[in-house]
Every structure is written in structure tokens, then in C-alpha cells.
Design goal:
The chain has helices at residues 2-18, 56-66, 79-82, 135-139, 148-156, 159-169, 176-188, 196-202, 211-223, 255-258, 290-297, 320-330, 336-339; strands at 238-239, 267-268. It is mainly α. It folds into 2 domains: 56-191, Cytochrome Bc1 Complex, Chain D, domain 2 (Orthogonal Bundle), CATH 1.10.760.10; 196-336, Cytochrome c-like domain (Cytochrome Bc1 Complex, Chain D, domain 2), CATH 1.10.760.
Length: 348
């Protein structure tokens, strides 16, 4: 009897082994066609790749670093945690950034694209170079909470990264300059210039704007284009748009960097490209919809501290229909090509 039972047991093991699920096949992400781009009619970027020359190996290293939580103090938070491709590299549905140990930051994570044109970074402009910019969140105690030297040590101890640095820079020795240049290359190549509106402007693919979108565009030119100037849809200036101060955060904006009273409550003008995908809005993520944003601009209280002169006359004169048309136009600024570009996806 025991012999028969053993036979059935062995038969069951064989059946089970033969039914194992095949291992998942992970296709390598593409990293080709990497070129510096300045679309026709755009200004020259602030940052070029003349020194940090573009190579596939640097890009692959930068992508690995961007998505690896090894850059945080407890290896739980990556850049990609708060900058998600489906949200144009903003933090989908999060008003404020979330960091290590379940800590919550004081500002909303902005979208990442067209960074080469930015003269400064962060909502207060506290960083002025793309190759230094990652150090902000990496060292922020509410975000990734790390010191750069231990981060470099962790990367140096990794055979994976020694190999990636060897391919990218010709040496297994990890240093902060090469780490930051690789990340700048990955993020700097996130171009956004292929929205429906761009195709319409370039007269490509028979792209046409609807009547509502055209009305919205004309309203935009009248009411919004001074601050959100084409083609980048920002002038990179610092302005107070009349938001009431959040007493739990008491964020003074640009004044946090300059210490100047005239900079209190001024924040960097964000790009409106991909705005339909980057909710929630404003530096502290207080608004969940574009309708709420436009409602605010139509009802700004005058004489607030450092309120932008363009808003001193009780905001923008927008009707309900005007707001709907402007939102229709803003939806044409979504670059679905960027959102679906597998080169920028998480390699893990």
C-alpha cells in the first residue's frame, strides 16, 4: 500500500512540476534615437548637451538611478515615486509629495519635461542648474532624506552600478558628478512638443481644433498668455497669484530663498503643458480640477500681499462658458507621445 502511495506522490510531484508557470519575459526598454531637440520656433534652451554629450549608456544609467529607491536613506523612495510617467512625471492624485517613513512634504511634485529651458528649479527657484536639481529631493528630510556620500557608497558597492558607470563613463568609480550628469541626461531628454495643439500649430497630421478649443485658445491668449507664454507655456517668473496662505505650512515661496519681503508668497509659474494630467494643482496641490483653478482666477481678492498686478482688478473676467472653453483648449496640450514613450518607463 505504501508503495502505491509513493507512486501517486511522485506522479503528483511530476504533474505539479510540469505545470509551473513560465518565467515572465521582460523585454528590454529601448534607449535609442536620443538626440537634442529644439523645436522650430522655440527659444534656445538654457542647458545643452555640449559638455554632457548624449550616449545611450548615460541615458540607461540615468533611467536606472531615477527609478531606484537606493537614492533614499532607507531605500524606499525613488525619484519615480513622485514623478510618474502617466501623470507627465508629476505625482498623480497627491497634493503634497510623500517621502521616507510616511513623511509628507510641503509642496506638490511638479511634472518633469522640457527641463532644459528652465533657468531654475523647484517652486521657489532654489536650484539653478539641472545637474544639481536631484540633490534637492535626495537630501530633503521630508522626501528622500539622504546624504550624498552614503548614496555614492551604496552605488559603489553595487556590482550593477559599477557596470553601468563603467559603460557610461569608462570607469567603475562612482562619483556625484557622473551620477548627476546621467540623471540630467535622462530627465533632459523628456521633451514635450507633440500635443494636439503642437500638431495644429505645425499643420501636421491634419490636426484641427474644435470650435470650443479655438475659443479657449483665443481666451487663453487674452487672459493667460502673459504668464504662461507660448511655446513653453510659462515665462519662468515668480508671481503671487492670490492664494490664501495655508497656515499649517506657511510657505513663503521665493522669499524662502531670497529673504526679500517683496518675494513673499511668490512661486514659479508652472508650464501648462500636460496640465490635464498633472492634478492636483498649485504649489500645495490645493485644487483638484482645472475648473477650481479658473474659479480662483476669476475671483481673486485685490490688495493681497505682493499680488501680481495682472490680478489686482479682482481677477480675470471669465464667464462659465469661457472657463469651459479654456479647459477644452488646455486639454489639447497633453503630449500622449511622451506619456507612452517606453524609453522613459520604469526599467523594473
Amino acid at each position: 500500500m505504501n508503495k502505491i502511495a509513493n507512486i501517486f506522490f511522485l506522479f503528483g510531484v511530476l504533474i505539479f512540476a510540469s505545470c509551473k508557470v513560465d518565467p515572465r519575459i521582460v523585454e528590454p526598454l529601448p534607449a535609442n534615437n536620443l538626440v537634442e531637440v529644439v523645436p522650430a520656433g522655440w527659444p534656445q534652451p538654457v542647458y545643452s548637451f555640449s559638455v554632457n554629450t548624449i550616449t545611450e549608456d548615460k541615458f540607461v544609467l540615468g533611467r536606472a538611478l531615477f527609478y531606484d529607491p537606493i537614492l533614499s536613506v532607507d531605500s524606499t523612495i525613488s525619484c519615480g515615486s513622485c514623478h510618474q510617467q502617466s501623470a507627465a512625471f508629476a505625482h498623480a492624485d497627491h497634493d503634497l509629495s510623500h517621502g521616507i517613513y510616511d513623511r509628507v512634504g510641503i509642496r506638490n511634485a511638479p511634472g518633469i519635461f522640457n527641463l532644459n529651458w528652465h533657468p531654475n528649479f523647484m517652486h521657489d527657484g532654489g536650484i539653478n542648474h539641472i545637474e544639481v536639481m536631484p540633490l534637492g529631493p535626495i537630501t530633503n528630510t521630508l522626501e528622500m532624506g539622504a546624504d550624498i556620500n552614503p548614496v555614492i557608497a551604496k552605488l559603489q558597492a553595487s556590482s550593477k552600478y559599477k557596470n553601468l558607470f563603467k559603460k557610461a563613463f569608462g570607469t567603475e568609480t562612482v562619483n556625484s558628478q557622473n551620477m548627476l550628469r546621467a540623471m540630467a541626461q535622462f530627465m533632459g531628454l523628456m521633451y514635450s512638443y507633440n500635443s494636439k495643439f503642437d500638431l495644429y500649430k505645425r499643420r501636421e497630421s491634419n490636426a484641427e481644433l474644435s470650435d470650443a478649443e479655438l475659443r479657449g485658445y483665443n481666451l487663453f491668449l487674452t487672459n493667460c498668455n502673459t504668464c504662461h507664454k507660448e511655446p513653453l507655456f510659462t515665462d519662468f517668473s515668480f508671481r503671487s497669484n492670490g492664494l490664501a496662505v495655508n497656515p499649517f505650512i506657511n510657505d513663503t515661496g521665493r522669499a524662502h530663498i531670497t529673504g526679500e519681503a517683496q518675494d513673499r508668497f511668490k512661486f514659479k509659474t508652472p508650464s501648462l503643458r500636460n496640465i490635464a494630467k498633472t492634478a492636483p494643482y498649485m504649489h500645495d496641490g490645493r485644487f483638484n480640477t482645472l475648473q477650481e483653478c479658473l474659479d480662483h482666477y476669476a475671483n481673486v481678492k485685490p490688495n493681497l500681499v505682493n499680488l501680481d498686478p495682472l490680478l489686482q482688478n479682482s481677477g480675470l473676467p471669465l464667464s462659465t462658458q469661457d472657463k469651459q472653453d479654456i479647459i477644452a483648449f488646455l486639454n489639447t496640450l497633453t503630449d500622449y507621445k511622451l506619456l507612452a514613450d517606453r524609453r522613459f518607463a520604469d526599467p523594473n
